[in-house]
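Reading group handout, session on sequence-to-structure problems. Before we discuss, look at one worked example. The prompt was deliberately terse, the way you'd type it at a terminal:

> structure Helix-turn-helix domain-containing protein

The input record follows.
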Amino acid sequence: MNNLETLGQRISYLRTKCGLSQRRLMDELGFENLSKYEKDKREPKIDVLKALANYFHISLDWLLNGSEYIHPNGLTEREIQIIKQLRQLDKNEQTKIEGMIELKLVEAGIHAYSLQKELNPAKPNIGNFRPK
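And the output record:
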């Protein structure tokens, strides 16, 4: 694995991992000085850091410190981003993705808690219920 001790090293790692040139990334995000950022000769302003984090779907904590922030609910920034993206899909598409996740868990030998049961609990049988 690459040495990712500095902010510049992490920026360079993300860019090269995605196969982007410095020019292309600067053009897409609308800023300059990427070479200086990657060489740790200059620190980017917060708006540049936010743009990089959003573009690469990573947390600012990882970008700045090399560690992932864990929310009190136990989710990382990336996991929260995935949930937000999932919520943008319609229920049918969400169900398909939940099935894919359960399949992957089973393939990996991990007990798959059924998301369907949590999302669509069985309705109680009240067919014979008669109010008094």
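Points for discussion. First: The chain has two domains: 7-65, 77-119. Second: The CA atoms of residues 59 and 129 lie 52 Å apart.
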